[in-house]
Design brief:
This protein is of the alpha/beta class. It contains eleven helices and ten strands. The protein has a single domain, classed as NADP-dependent oxidoreductase domain (TIM Barrel). The relative contact order is 0.14.
């Protein structure tokens, strides 16, 4: 495994991270999930991502259970808050009340004293950013959170958080978790330049575009049992297919084969070519899937391949 610093922080994360969305606590039996997470750890992955909303906390519970037999200092585990966790008006968003209650609920589910990274799962227009940053800063001072992060915030929202943190001497965010892959490059225009300047690293999710960049859906077909057949993902896959992107995807897969690597390896290596990206966050339901994804860290795409990828995507 290879490791990168997370922004300008001292924290080092594995180039491949493992997430628990749509897998652990839901579609994957606990024993299989435990074996997959433990295999990831054995391969050198030290970055494990979850959130309170993933199967109402089951994703957190399963991931923490799998890691419990390993030394706590040897892995990084994260959680998040924003999305509704109940019907009440205060059971959502980034208010001090909701963030306070959700972090403690997450720690209780995971049987942990602290999480390494706490993410604001989305931007909350109904809560002052200062209010949210202050409660996270309180957690950091109490030792319940080590680093603050955000997910899917715009460049303007990230800059707002930086300005407020600096003004009130609060702990800055050190990580952003956006979607980033060959088919979705929106962070390149504003977010990566800002993050590089401000010392914020990216741990990107959906680097394989929900399996689109693995060759599973060649020709626009969605086989049963794949992630694309999951109702929570199927809409996005069908939208990508309807957009006409499948021809480009098939051409990219052919390019990977020509280069003697798997499509997933090429897609992950392309994401990791970006210096501001500290880690690519993948999902896996079986140990062999994470084994295949980890191979990407040994792949370096030369200028010719990168140019050909650009030609296909143009």
């Amino acid at each position: 495994m290879k490791y990168r610093r997370l922004g300008r922080s001292g924290l080092k994360v594995s180039e491949i991270s493992l997430g628990s969305w749509l897998t652990y606590g839901k579609t994957v039996e606990d024993d299989q999930a435990l074996n997959t997470i433990r295999r990831a750890y054995e391969l050198g992955i030290n970055s494990f991502d979850s959130a309170n909303v993933y199967e109402s906390g089951e994703g957190e519970r399963v991931m923490a259970k799998a890691l419990r037999s390993f030394p706590r200092e040897s892995y990084i585990i994260t959680t998040k808050a924003f999305w509704p966790m109940g019907e009440g008006v205060n059971e959502r968003g980034l208010s001090r009340k909701h963030v306070f209650e959700q972090l403690h609920a997450s720690l209780k589910r995971m049987e942990l004293d602290y999480v390494d990274i706490f993410y604001c799962h989305r931007y909350d227009p109904e809560t002052p950013v200062e209010e949210t940053l202050r409660v996270i800063d309180d957690f950091i001072r109490q030792g319940k959170v080590l680093y603050a992060g955000v997910s899917q915030w715009s460049a303007a929202q990230i800059q707002e958080a930086i300005t407020i943190a600096d003004h009130y001497l609060l702990d800055r965010i050190v990580v952003n978790q956006p979607v980033y892959n060959l088919l979705n490059r929106y962070i390149e225009e504003e977010i990566i330049p800002l993050s590089t300047k401000q010392g914020i690293g990216q741990i990107v999710f959906s680097p394989l575009a929900q399996g689109m960049l693995t060759g599973k859906y060649r020709g626009g077909q969605i086989p049963e049992g794949t992630r694309g057949s999951n109702p929570e993902v199927n809409k996005w896959i069908n939208e990508m297919i309807a957009s006409g992107v499948i021809a480009k995807v098939d051409a990219l897969e052919d390019l990977a084969r020509e280069g003697g690597i798997s499509f997933a390896e090429m897609a992950l290596a392309w994401v990791l070519r970006q210096p501001n990206v500290a880690s690519a966050l993948v999902g896996a339901t079986r140990p062999e899937q994470i084994e295949a994804n980890v191979k990407a860290i040994e792949v370096t795409l030369d200028e010719e391949i990168l140019e050909r990828i650009e030609e296909i995507l143009a």
